[in-house]
Design goal:
Elements lengths: L1 H9 L3 H15 L5 H22 L2 H7 L1 H20 L3 H10 L2 H10 L8 H28 L4 H5 L20 H17 L4 H5 L1 H17 L3 H18 L2 H20 L1 H8 L11 H14 L13 H11 L3 H6 L6 H28 L4 H15 L6 H18 L8
Helix pairs in contact: 2-3, 2-8, 3-7, 5-6, 5-7, 5-19, 7-21, 8-10, 10-12, 10-13, 10-20, 13-14, 13-20, 14-15, 16-17, 19-20, 20-21
């Protein structure tokens, strides 16, 4: 192992090494505290700039990826338009500051060649970061259990809400859904990518590796992440006509069912989706309807009300619909499509859809690109992920990286 590390260090220039290490640090900290991820983002920026300066090819690389860069510019432009449409300029400037990575990260990624990125190492780094985050969260839970007078009695609550969902990721000061979708991207890469074929050949090692990630995924109680994983495995199995894939999906569904009985909060969340009579029970669905009713009274379907004033629409809707918690906590729309519609009108919604379609066109939904696309499509339904810095960072990097990596490919998805 030491010999391999020495060979790796001596086989590349220091600029190349710095770029690769900075990339892995940035990806590895995506699941962790935002302040650490922000630091590694600037290290990644420095590494990309130094490497690009050495190779002198960044201009041609950016030109070759100009269409994708334009798509990010349009997304960022939607927030700039908020300056013209919104009265609450303080919120607009806050939003603009948060989405700056929509411009920065694509420039860093597209200034490089596909061969400058090792997809196996990138997802390995993501897995390491996820595992570190999981250990931090589990250590926090263990400390809580051991601090009680009767730790064995307290341990029984491990599967309860007190130690799952938002409470699970408290030490990371993050959102369980975002951590969950990163787990999904990592799991699918391990299960499907040819770079991990050797790892998959050892079933015992593979099972031991995957189990803690599956367990933590269920602990996050993220319905969208779990549904996304099932959908990805199903599509993968159908495309490849692989019985193993279908069996894996069935095993996962069986384990999920069993854990849903133990994790009563997760089970209750799934039961709240649709009633026996077919009625949609998800509260967010009814909030969306109320938001659309209020938005319709504004007569701003073309350009929207601006990113700064969208929250006032939501608050009025929550008050009208008696959504007390949403009103008290000043929730966003929890729907990225609706967020763009209210903030930027039909123009904003169309821009976002075109950005997603460009990703389909450029990547042909090859392998991890299909996984990322499904995750984003589903996640956009339940979360306004551009409303969180972590969501902006995840979208900006993987959208750029996967376009760069699979743009030249022509094979079908998976």
């Amino acid at each position: 192992m030491i010999k391999g590390i020495k060979n790796y260090l001596h086989s590349k220039s220091w600029q190349k090494l710095f770029f690769e290490i900075s990339t892995y640090l940035f990806v590895g900290t995506l699941p962790l505290l935002l302040k650490y991820n922000t630091i590694t983002l600037w290290i990644f920026a420095l590494g990309s700039i130094i490497f690009s300066y050495k190779n002198k090819d960044w201009k041609s690389n950016l030109i070759n990826n100009r269409t994708a860069l334009i798509s990010f510019t349009l997304l960022f432009g939607l927030y700039l338009i908020g300056l013209l449409l919104s009265e609450d300029l303080k919120r607009v400037f806050k939003d603009i500051g948060r989405v700056v990575p929509l411009l920065l990260i694509p420039l860093l990624v597209f200034s490089r060649h596909k061969n400058d990125f090792d997809i196996k190492n990138i997802f390995t780094s993501l897995g390491i970061g996820l595992f570190v985050g999981m250990l931090i969260c589990w250590s926090h839970i263990l400390t809580s259990i051991m601090s009680r007078t009767r730790p064995l009695e307290q341990a029984k609550y491990f599967f309860q809400w007190i130690y799952t969902d938002w409470n699970l990721v408290t030490p990371l000061d993050g959102h369980p859904g975002y951590f969950a979708i990163l787990i999904v991207l990592f799991l699918v890469a391990i299960i499907t990518n040819d770079k991990f074929k050797k790892l998959r050949s050892n079933k015992v090692k593979l099972s031991l590796l995957l189990f803690p990630f599956f367990l933590f995924l269920i602990e996050t109680n993220s319905r969208i992440a779990i549904i996304s994983l099932v959908a990805i495995l199903f599509i993968y199995s159908i495309n490849k006509f692989r019985l193993k894939g279908l069996l894996l999906m069935m095993v996962f569904l069986s384990v999920l069912t069993l854990f849903s009985l133990k994790f009563d909060y997760l089970g209750s969340k799934f039961r709240k989706i649709v009633s026996i009579n077919g009625e949609i029970k998800v509260e967010r669905y009814h909030r969306w309807k109320e938001i659309l009713m209020v938005f319709n009274t504004q007569d701003n379907w073309t350009f929207g009300v601006g990113t700064g004033d969208a929250r006032s629409i939501y608050r009025e809707a929550y008050e009208n619909g008696n959504f007390d918690l949403a009103f008290e906590k000043n929730y966003n729309a929890h729907n990225q499509y609706l967020e763009f519609l209210v903030s930027n009108g039909l123009i904003g919604l169309i821009v976002y859809i075109l950005v997603l379609l460009l990703f389909v066109y450029k990547t042909k939904l090859n392998k991890e690109a299909l996984s990322f696309f499904i995750v984003i499509i589903f996640f956009s339904i339940s979360e306004s992920f551009f409303g969180r810095s972590q969501g902006v960072l995840i979208f900006s990097f993987f959208y750029s990286f996967l376009i760069l990596y699979y743009n030249s490919k022509t094979q079908n998805a998976f």
